[in-house]
Structures are given as structure tokens and as C-alpha cells.
Specification:
Strand content: 25-35%
Oligomer: single chain
Strand order of the largest sheet: 7-10-15-18-21-22-23
CATH superfamily: Hexapeptide repeat proteins
CATH class: Mainly Beta
Helix content: under 10%
CATH architecture: 3 Solenoid
CATH topology: UDP N-Acetylglucosamine Acyltransferase, domain 1
Number of domains: 1
Radius of gyration: 18 Å
Shape: globular
Order of helices and strands: HEEEEEEEEEEEEEEEEEEEEEEE
Number of strands: 23
Length: 200
Amino acid sequence: MIRNEYGFSEVVKNIYSLIYTRIFFRGARLIRRPCYIRGKKYFKFGSGLTTGYSCRIEMFNVVDTMKYKLEIGKNCKLGDHVHIAAGEHVIIGDNCLMASKIYISDINHGDYTSTTHASSPEIPPDTRKLSTKPVTIGDNVWLGDNVCILPGADIGNGCVIGANAIVNSRIPDNTIAVGVPAKVIKQYNFKNNTWMRVKE
């Protein structure tokens, strides 16, 4: 575990953020300012939530089926500049650790998978009809720097996603995945208590 030793200015910033957290985000550990949150009524979080600086968390009622668009479990820690955009349903489990500059979204500006309603490249991207596909991240997941989690991603419990990876599919429990798109390279062996390389 890393022991944080803050300078004076950092202590002052944290005190300000702590007061803000206690007033507006009861149950959270620390929401560092600045933090940009849009659509707070669609946001549910467990106790112990911690965010870094300049996080951007936004919830849009694109698909009107769920009360909460973004659900984050207990004791989750988000690094600096984490951006989460939820329009249908993004679920993040307990005890997740996120490094910096991570992007997680269940929303696309347009539909690029359909054979009948695909978005035309002649339409400006910001006016294309939004499409969504839920995102799930399990418990005890560690996301490295610059990881990008795209609509439809499903990351199992106990996973490690390597820096700069792009996840757009299912990652099984207790595995390490890296690359673009992310591929599983190791799986935890509970019998030997080791991470074993996965044969291609």
C-alpha cells in the first residue's frame, strides 16, 4: 500500500474537497475538486468512493429503463481525469481501482453495428442518433492508465486491464488483458496461487 505524504497546498485542497464531499456526496470518502458531475440523480455509489482531480462523470437518460444510469460499488478509487459517460447502464463493482485518463462509456454517437439502421457518414457525428449498450465491470478490477472501456464491454471479477488497452467485449474473471482490442494473456491459477500465461 502506498503511503501518501501531501504538501501544504495539497492538504488545503483536500480539506476543501472533504468539506464538499461531506455536504454533497455523503458516504463517499473524498471527491476531489474540480470534479464535473452531470445528471447526479441517475448516479448511485457505495461507501468509500474516492476520485482524483478533474474527473468527469455524466449520466444521460438515453434509454429510459433504469432508475440509475451509473452504479459504482463500495471502496472504489478513481484516478485523475477519469471520464465516465452512462446513457443506459454502467455498473462498476466493489473495490475497483482506476488509474488516470480512463474512459468508460455505454454510449455511441451513432449506430455502427446495425445492417438496417446504420449511421450515415454524411450526417455530422454530433447529430447522429445515440446508441447504447450496457457496460459491466466486476469486483476487484484494476484498470491501468489510458484504458478505454467501450459500449457492450463486460469485465469479470478480479481482472487487470493493462495500460492503453481498449475493451469492447467480454473479459473472463480473474484474467489479465492487454492490447487493442484487449486480449487475455494471463489467468489466475488458484491451485498454484500464480498468474499463468494463456496459450494462444
